[in-house]
């Protein structure tokens, strides 16, 4: 393996309709033929991204902001949020009238419904999951999606110092184990393969991509990325809606 390439999804690998362009699919295939392993690196869960991965022919990923790492279909790392923490969070969310979704690598369910769920999932061109308030009581949980508008999470940051909060949309916040991130997921994967010195590339556009870009050999910011990502990037490619992935891979001679 010549190296590893990590792609954020929304605003990066996906176009404006949350689909993978045909030109991007061809680029991913060429990347693999040239000896590089493509990874999805996302705040979403494996269950949410199954169709996207099949469409792009990608079989490895850093999921839920580093909470789960899968390499060629095999889970190599998983961090779970303690059930008692989820229980306390769930109770507080219900009292405050917000929404909450609980995730693991196989399933995800709303455990507290709210009107904002439609906006939160509509933002990524999806539908809210089914309501199952007891899901976390019977299953391990890797991540929670706190459905709320800012600055609702500030109160919860104080109440739950063992958790990290990542607001990636106006309508929701990813809630994960303290200290985890896409960057940590990449680090754990490379350690698992004893490939700490491998060439690594990452493409991103949003706030949860900052540490990831700082963690790889060659950080690439999309043309539509936040200014802070462009500041730390080695290369700024075109927008996700204008062949950004293709142009970035060509810049480095990977395809």
UniProtKB/TrEMBL annotation:
GO terms for molecular function: magnesium ion binding; phosphatase activity. GO terms for cellular component: cytosol. The keyword Metal-binding does not apply. This is Cof-like hydrolase. The keyword Coiled coil does not apply. It comes from the Bacteria. Pfam families: Hydrolase_3. Keywords: Hydrolase. PROSITE patterns: COF_1, COF_2.
